[in-house]
Amino acid sequence: MFNYEKLLENHKFERNEDSITIELNIPEDFIYEISSINVIFTNCEVKLLCDEIPENIKENIYRFYKNDVFLFITFLEENLEVFLSGKIPKSDYNSQINTNNSNMSNIKENRNENNKNICKPAILLPDDYVYPINDIKSFNISYKADKKNIALLLAEKLNIKVLCNKCKKHYNIHSRLICDKCNEMLIYEYFSTLSDQFFGFIKLENCTFIAFNYNSYVINCLTCSKIYRTTEIGINTQFEFKCYGCYSFISLTLKDIQYKTYQKSLSSKIKVGVPLPENGTCIHYRKSFRWFRFPCCNKLFPCDICHDKETDHCNEMANKMVCGFCSKEQSVKNNCECGMTMKKSTAHWEGGKGTRNKVVMSKKDNKKYKK
């Protein structure tokens, strides 16, 4: 079945009637606190004797056994740290083994059945890993997540998709880059933080945020505080594994990530005697030359639709307005002493009066037939 002489040269082993136990050679600079690992081989099975190694990692190791003990021991010693970190080694080990055992297909099927519940691998970070912390007081990247046995969740980097403001080309970005179409410098800066509600702060210039891409996150075990880095996951992607230190089941599912934009109040743009931007009009109403002050929040908006888009509450009827030509704040009316005047009111929206119901609009109103 295998060559005992090769094993005797470098390994301690014990032979029984129907099995053999081999002790792995652990290097002196081994990063994990494990004193010894024994491997038991029978006719068609292999078993690791080590209480410090969790079962999901053992199952990953068992998958590489193909009835050649010598090659398996050599491969295991070369990749032991890779296995214990939760990853699967990239190797052509399987191509080196030629087995004619007819029972191997049945064994493989049993292994696959057992491996269906194997947790996804996570990268174990050093014990002296330090979480990055910044002093930014306002954050614009919020998240919601289902966490189990996770004390802290951190996004060290965030890969996002943006739109160039000049040429409208899309980019997947994680740092600054120059648009290859218009040569515009797209500035992207991300500052991470530790929070139960926010990942951090994103600063964008010359580009517009579109969406979040798949990202990797740093988590730590709630029980033993070991630190891990996940694989790249997206919204509603479940990431789960067993902690190497305490064997606790750890699970993470991101439910939502949002990028919040904060706009300056329109009040800061008002200077009496100077016209408002676009003379007070907006994309919704091109002939309403004024801004309205809504009593529900005491803020200025060009119309009720603009209000509802920028706030999280229902609007109330505006009681004051700011003229779009002279920026004077006054009661709501159809004209201003500066000469601004609204056209004769129709059955459509003008100055906060009228209707948007096309059924009851006047036939003379061109809005009635406009799609």
TrEMBL record:
Residues 275-340 form the CHY-type domain. Pfam families: zf-CHY. GO terms for molecular function: zinc ion binding. Coiled coil: none annotated. Keywords: Metal-binding, Zinc, Zinc-finger. This is Putative CHY zinc finger domain-containing protein. It comes from Hamiltosporidium magnivora. The lineage of its organism: Eukaryota, Fungi, Fungi incertae sedis, Microsporidia, Dubosqiidae.
